[in-house]
Amino acid sequence: MEAAWRALLIVLLILAVVLDLPLLMLLCILLGLVQATAWLWQRTCLDAVTYRRRLGVNRLFYGEETDLRVEMTNAKPLPLSWLRVEDVFPAALEITPEQAVRNYGPGQRMLVNLLSMRWYERVIRRYRVRGCERGVWRIGPADLASGDLFGFAIKRRQDQALDTLLVYPKLLPLTAFGLSAMRPFGELRTARRLTEDPLQLMGARPYAPGDSYRHIHWKATAHRRELQTKVFDPAAARPVAIFINVNTSRHLFEGTDYDLREYAISAGASIARWVCEQGQPAGVYVNAVMQPGAQRVRIRPRAGPEQLAEILEALARVTGYGRWPMEALVAAEARHLPYGSVIVAVSATVTDELLRALLDLQARGGVAVLVTLGDDAQTPVPAGIRRYHIGGKQEWHELAALALA
Q: What is the CATH number of the domain that holds 329?
């Protein structure tokens, strides 16, 4: 198109010179100057133009918000008559104000900024981002476009800088699932007595790194003149291993119910938080992999303030379907757990193989707890396995709406 315009101007200029038409000659010169200016502007408009996005935090709990600041800089003496920046965001992140957001494609939206900039000017615009779905969400790339004042030509450039926002699973109090806030799985007893504390202190022991400050025994500390930690009954110190089944049907060809999968992950994360708050060792196993890297979710039970953060980050990265049967995962990992451990299996499907794996664990001195969701509520469970049903998709939708509110 530009070549055609240049050829036309050259022809008109030659005619103006041959036919001695001053006005036509002047018009051709003016049009030539305009085109040259437009060409120069188009060539240099995006030079020294930068676009940066800055998130307040890169980790969010479900339903929480953070600040988003986008910064556009024109670091050259040439002003920009217009600049359009289109930044790609996943649909799982809600951006306000919504007037700046456009639909982009399946599962994606676009943050659009349109403005004009003076020379050596920097413009900062602020938004709010809310995490509406669990996962690891990539933000970017951004497309920059600008051109000349007359609209003859447009120059585009893609900014490949990416940002990642991690959204943790929905965390809810156990009472929201219909479980007791104090002892959600009742009295946990094994066939034989657990090993007592080796220090044999009646109610207190020396403080160790990782102990909760809430469990410091101040009277014993004052008496012994050394920081002491309360010793609870053996049942309160049991390791708890939480197994989460992300498959929502017995056969992979039946597909995965997204709502039930998220319900299972949310329930497992909430149980893990409760266990950590009690000062007990907590671990999480999932029959799926994390992204990126396709690593197995295998967090062995241990206590400490950093354990819950590791569990939540792993569950936020879980993606896809279950690559291993739930019963095989329970049978393989239960052999490495200490005697008397509590295994909590969260699953939307209840198979005979899974029940046998839990019964084998019970026979070896462990405590088996089955938390079910979905349509398998009527499946009979053998005696010895504690079973709790927390509802299905309707309950999940109600809890999700409550969490957002």
A: 3.40.50
